[in-house]
């Protein structure tokens, strides 16, 4: 394995481990679920997301299966593009990291643990969500520059 690949693997593992650690910390620090309301722009609390993005309720086994399929597809994309379009490969791997973090939650807890709350918008998210969004933004920005 080349040095760049090793660094990428270590960084990916670090993000997943950090996210799981933060989720565990949130569950211990804020037992019980918090309301998505408050006075501050950003609050730390626990929101148990039983669905997918935006709390859309979808049957957990279906979400887990679809997540594994998406991860496999993204891994294929990363492998296919690692030499010709490394930014696509990097974007795919970044998204995979976030997907793995949320998949672990679903398998362990039966929900994703969101710990960053924006009461004004009613949004709740975690590091995995931010990682997924970062990967998507990288993909879109790089794609825009190419065209």
Structure explained in plain terms:
Strand 2 (112-118) and strand 3 (123-125) form a beta hairpin. The protein has four helices and three strands. The protein has a three-stranded antiparallel sheet. It has 147 residues and is mainly α. The mean pLDDT is 88. The chain has one domain. It is globular. It has helices spanning 3-29, 60-81, 86-109, 127-146; strands spanning 43-49, 112-118, 123-125.
Question: What structural class is derived from the secondary structure elements?
Answer: mainly alpha
Tell me the distance between the termini. Answer: 32 Å
Number of helices: 4
Radius of gyration: 16 Å
Shape: globular
Oligomerization: single chain
**How many domains, in number, for the residues?**
1
Compute the number of strand runs. Answer: 3
Poorly predicted ranges: none
Order of helices and strands: HEHHEEH
Mean pLDDT: 88
Indicate the percent of residues in helices.
Answer: 55-70%
Pfam families: Peptidase_A8 (PF01252)
Protein name: Lipoprotein signal peptidase
EC number: 3.4.23.36
Membrane topology: Multi-pass membrane protein
């Amino acid at each position: 394995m080349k040095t760049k690949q090793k660094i990428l693997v270590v960084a990916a593992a670090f993000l997943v481990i950090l996210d799981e650690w933060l989720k565990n910390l949130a569950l211990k620090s804020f037992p019980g679920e918090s309301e998505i309301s408050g006075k501050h722009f950003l609050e730390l609390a626990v929101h148990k997301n039983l669905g997918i993005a935006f709390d859309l309720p979808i049957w957990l086994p279906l979400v887990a299966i679809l997540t594994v399929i998406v991860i496999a597809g993204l891994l294929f994309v990363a492998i296919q593009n690692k030499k010709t379009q490394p930014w696509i490969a990097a974007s795919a791997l970044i998204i995979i990291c976030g997907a793995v973090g949320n998949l672990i939650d679903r398998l362990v807890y039966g929900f994703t643990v969101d710990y960053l709350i924006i009461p004004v918008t009613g949004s709740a998210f975690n590091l995995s969500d931010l990682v997924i969004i970062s990967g998507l933004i990288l993909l879109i920005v790089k794609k825009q520059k190419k065209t």
